[in-house]
Amino acid sequence: MSKEKEVLLNEEIQADEIRCIGDDGKVYGIISSDEALDIANRLGLDLVMIAPEAKPPVCKIMDYGKFRYQQEKKQKEAKKKQKVIDIKEIKLSVKIAQNDINYKVKHASEFLEQGKHVKFRVFLKGREMGSPEAGVALLEKIWRMVEDIADRDKEPLLEGRYVNMLVTPKKKK
Known about the structure:
The protein has 4 helices and 8 strands; from the N terminus they run ββαββαβαβαββ. It is elongated. A hairpin with a 2-residue loop joins strand 7 (150-159) and strand 8 (162-169). The chain is α/β, with parallel strands linked by helices. The mean pLDDT is 87. Helix content is 34%, strand content 31%. The strands form 2 sheets. The protein has a 4-stranded mixed sheet. Strands 5-6-8-7 form a 4-stranded mixed sheet, with helices on one face.
């Protein structure tokens, strides 16, 4: 079975008895799959299994092509409403000069004004791994510089050799 065809149709339904529902909401009850297929053929529609796990399985008599078209239309509509979040990453080290911090914060504020999320990463080398507090302190210092234009999404946190902090643009009221 291919990925897009996850439902069983017409002759593919192997169950002896099924619970059958009409396209108009009419309940046919528990009938044999052959009987349901005959009803569907008489109406010029398809027999579609909608709940294979149920006992007995639930099938619906409907126009499958129309149903699939509506499903695809809903998916496209949902995709349009989705918002892609762009995350910019700014890498730092514990021994960074104040001038460099100012430069990186300036870039971060530009990204935040564009509506992008910014992830600050402090890389810990060698002995710096023994005291990750230095990385946390640096991120706290940076936070004080951007807190007027950003919200902190994630507190400074040690993850492997990095101390990470995620900031997002402030919500406009």
